[in-house]
Request: fold
Amino acid sequence: MTGAGADLPDLPDLAEAGAVLAAEAARFASFGWMRGTSGNLSVVTGREPLRLAVTASALDKGELTAADVVLVDGEGAAVAGGRPSAEAALHARVVRLTGAGAVVHVHTVASVAMARRRPGGVVLKDLEMLKGLGLPADGPEVVLPVIGNSQDMRVLGDRLAAAREPRMPAVVVAGHGLYVWGADPREARHRTEVVEWLLELELLEGPGPAGAR
Reply:
């Protein structure tokens, strides 16, 4: 299990989850990470059976309200509300794989650019910011996986499951963006900001031999 406990007390109801996700989406949109209607967020609202609140499809993520959320089941199918993000099934798969309580998906330039530059994965080592992911700054190298994109969420989920690095609570989808997860929305947000910082650093450093794969 990566970055989340199996037991999460005080899980939010749908209205509370909607308010949290709207606030988180506005934050990411302000960074330019959820341009237009891109990206999606989710938070677990129930474990038995699994239920997630997911941001609704085709809405400006900088303008979401607490009502702009859909309740989905453990397969990403809508249970209540409108139409969930097309990637709700992948959010549910990530939660089932990792035990996470929240999942962030953002479309950042650095994640797409680095997937092109390092399609075999982004190697990270000797960086203080790794502490933000619960990793030692001076420990062994860790790889941020890069997987190929697919419009089929089952295929994409299988690729994520096969490539997932247990120490790294994130994966880059080539030509698409970044998925990050955590025990709750705040941890998922912090980890997203850390991973994006690491990607931006790698992008700025250029395609040199260090860490190349």
Notes: Confidence is low (pLDDT under 50) at residues 1-9, 209-213. The chain is about 30% helix and 20% strand. The longest strand covers residues 40-47.
